[in-house]
Design brief:
With 274 residues, this protein is mainly α. It has one domain. Helix 4 packs antiparallel against helix 8, helix 7 runs antiparallel to helix 10 and helix 10 crosses helix 11. The longest helix has 32 residues. The protein is globular, with a radius of gyration of 20 Å.
């Protein structure tokens, strides 16, 4: 007797997930070529090239730190370090989510010509942004080190923090890349949504400084735990709390599962909607 109902759905989903993972490995050379292409096109025809991974966030942080330190009478050096530890994970999440909206749309010609596993298109963008963010993190940390960044063994948690952040972001990117194929206006709306999400994320302010209803709303923000994973070792020189690690891991796995479920459910329709 053949399986039916929820059991069959779970079996098919698991099989599709395993197929996506297997094919991503089989097409790894194409994947890395797409990553290389993404990074190359990102800085094509710019004089400074990859130096923009350092210059752009430095200018953004310095301007923001000067404004807020002046307005709220905060020590510039300490606030610069505080801001850096929040902006690095947020910039990666925001940019990756925004860029992923066009992962399938920009590769329409390639998708329609030959068979390639659909997952490698949003994956290549996510990997490209991760490499870009890691280069930025290392360079920027050297810049802010004289301003009070903590150089302690707690920094060893940052690779794990990046892995968890990447899994969470990749899950969101999968959902956004598929959704934009069906709702093209989403690529223009997501920028506004990211701006609203930014103000509900404790990047420029301390989470525990909030009170009332807004504190409750911000507490539901999944990015809060990821910000703590970066802020604790960089600013306080301490290991992140087990609560932050647990929440980040749980949120990352849920996001990844939701992303793959969305892709598996719609991947056969993508080529017809492009």
């Amino acid at each position: 007797m053949s399986e039916s109902g929820p059991m069959a759905i779970r079996t098919n989903a698991a099989g599709a997930l395993a197929r996506n993972v297997r094919e991503s490995h089989q097409y790894r050379e194409v994947l890395w070529q797409l990553v290389h292409q993404f990074l190359t096109l990102r800085y094509r025809r710019t004089i400074l090239g990859y130096l923009w991974t350092l210059i752009n966030p430095v200018l953004m942080m310095v301007v923001t730190a000067v404004v807020f330190a002046t307005l709220f009478k905060i020590d510039f050096a300490s606030y610069l370090v505080f801001l850096f530890a929040g902006m690095v994970p947020w910039n990666f999440f925001s940019m990756c989510t925004t860029q992923s909206c066009t992962a399938f749309i920009h590769n329409e010609g390639l998708i329609k010509k030959i068979y390639l596993p659909k997952v490698i298109f949003p994956l290549s963008m996510s990997l490209g942004m991760a490499i870009d963010s890691l280069l930025s993190l290392v360079a920027l940390f050297l810049v802010i080190l004289p301003f009070g960044a903590q150089l302690t063994p707690a920094l060893l948690v940052l690779p794990l923090a990046y892995v968890l952040l990447f899994l969470f972001t990749f899950g969101v990117s999968l959902v956004m890349s598929v959704a934009t194929v069906f709702f093209r206006d989403l690529q223009y709306v997501v920028g506004v949504l990211m701006q609203a999400w930014f103000f509900l994320t404790p990047v420029m302010y301390r989470h525990d400084a909030l009170t009332g209803k807004i504190a409750w709303v911000v507490a539901l923000n999944p990015m809060v735990a990821f910000i703590e994973l970066f802020r604790a070792p960089i600013v306080q020189g301490q290991w992140p709390s087990l609560h932050a690690l647990g929440v980040s891991a749980a949120v990352a796995l849920v996001s990844l599962a939701l992303g793959f479920w969305t892709l598996v459910a719609q991947e056969n329709k993508i080529v017809f909607r492009l």
